[in-house]
Amino acid sequence: MLIVFGLLAFVIEFAFMVGVYLLASGLVGGGFGGVVVGVLAVVLVAALWGMFVAPKARRRIPKVPRALAAGAAVAVVGAGLLGLGHQRFGLVLIGSGLVLVLAQVALDDGLTDPRARERREQARQGDSRRSRSRRKPATPSRESAPSRESVPPRDSAPPRDSAPRAGAETEGRGETRRSRHRRR
């Protein structure tokens, strides 16, 4: 059932963004200016939605105010579209505002995964991923740490062959053709 509510909320939010575009474009009067203003309005609303309403928002509004604000925003855009002459789409958005309120509340209450609840509680208490990653890792016990005797010593350089490589015949003063060629 949660999947259905999640899918329904997503479709309503997508229709809301389309409604924002139509409303902003219609208020300007259409044309190229309407397209630009409509796109900018969608970008602004999507950024605000992502910051305060989205499930992974860092500054997520509490459940009831968030659900009411989301539903009211969808209904206001629907009412604005009614005023511009988009009766069907406006009425659909006004009705969808109520459905979105119910879906937001049901989705928030429906978190049955205990790990998700635990993460949410940690986030509320200020225990974010960053603060957890800054913690020092636990030091291994003496029994689990390898002893120095069991770790072979590192050599500073791998052993080299004394014979020159093929194609690198020596030519006076300890240089090879390749090394002299590289200097040029």
UniProtKB/TrEMBL annotation:
Where are stretches of biased composition, namely Basic and acidic residues? 114-130, 168-177
- Where do transmembrane segments lie in this chain? 7-24, 30-52, 64-83, 89-107
Pfam families in the record: DUF2568 (PF10823)
UniProtKB keywords: Membrane, Transmembrane, Transmembrane helix
Q: Which domain of life is it from?
A: Bacteria
Task: Read off the InterPro entries from this record.
Answer: DUF2568
Which stretches of sequence are listed as region Disordered?
114-184
Protein name according to UniProt: Uncharacterized protein
Organism in which the protein naturally occurs: Knoellia sinensis KCTC 19936
Q: What is the lineage of its organism?
A: Bacteria, Bacillati, Actinomycetota, Actinomycetes, Micrococcales
